[in-house]
Design goal:
254 residues; single chain; 7-stranded mixed sheet; globular; alpha/beta
Length: 254
């Protein structure tokens, strides 16, 4: 919770800094619109960015995001298909499904991404494997990510998306699966096969892995430094924390 709290405080600070730049900017915590990406939600100009925070214990040896973790058949909380399921559930609940305003679904974590020099996922111990390629997002070209989530130039920290190349895309579309419950809902809503394909593509366009982000201690220091620098903030760290904590733990949200 403390890690989530610090990142939420950081986004609140950045909101006060950048409000003039983004018309109709709002920030919500524990927003249930897309359940797995509910920790922080930024909305501006009819777009939304949904952030899931995954803080790992750095003493734990195997904490990188690996092929096995992303593509496990179990619906574990950090698998690609569990993220996908959350997005699909959100789309099905909306009537105008694909005219959807979600710009990014971000997994924000202090874990690394287990990549080769060529930015491909490492094989590990698996028999069945595909070397999925990732592209790094240049935050200089993406203001909203840079303004709200960029914190440091530490080794390996970055924002990654699955590569757009045809081979990677085709293989990924095959890996994304609709759960039986989703299939039933899609059938009930009489949604076409085109909907299924477009949904998969939309999900891959929006998913971002923000990896090697600061750990709890580093994030805490970053927040405290930004409070000192930000003349608009009248509250001190504790007051800001308390204000955000009220939002995080509001009834019905946890």
């Amino acid at each position: 919770l403390m890690y989530r709290l610090d990142l939420s405080v950081l986004c609140s600070l950045r909101k006060s800094t950048y409000e003039h730049k983004y018309p109709s900017l709002s920030l919500a915590f524990e927003d249930s619109e897309i359940d797995m990406f509910s920790n922080i939600v930024l909305r501006y100009e009819k777009k939304s960015i949904h952030i899931r925070i995954e803080n790992v214990d750095e003493n734990y040896i195997d904490n990188d995001i690996s092929y096995a973790k992303l593509f496990t058949k179990e619906r574990r909380s950090s698998s690609i298909n569990s993220y996908f399921g959350s997005f699909v559930k959100h789309l099905i609940s909306k009537s105008d499904s694909l005219s959807n305003n979600v710009e990014y679904l971000i997994v924000y974590t202090n874990s690394g991404l287990d990549l080769t020099e060529e930015n491909e996922l490492k094989k590990g111990q698996l028999r069945k494997f595909y070397p999925f390629k990732f592209d790094s997002i240049n935050t200089e070209e993406c203001d909203i990510l840079k303004d709200f989530l960029f914190t440091n130039d530490t080794q390996g920290s970055g924002f990654y998306q699955f590569s757009q190349d045809d081979a990677t895309r085709e293989e990924l579309l095959g890996q994304l699966e609709f759960s039986p419950a989703m299939r039933k809902a899609i059938k009930g809503r009489k949604l076409s096969q085109e909907f299924e394909k477009e949904t998969k593509k939309a999900f891959l366009d929006k998913l971002v892995l923000a990896v090697n982000q600061p750990n709890r201690e580093e994030l805490n220091n970053i927040v405290k430094n930004e409070i000192k620098k930000n003349s608009k903030v009248e509250d001190d760290y504790i007051a800001l924390q308390e204000r955000v904590l009220c939002d995080l733990t509001a009834p019905e949200k946890e």
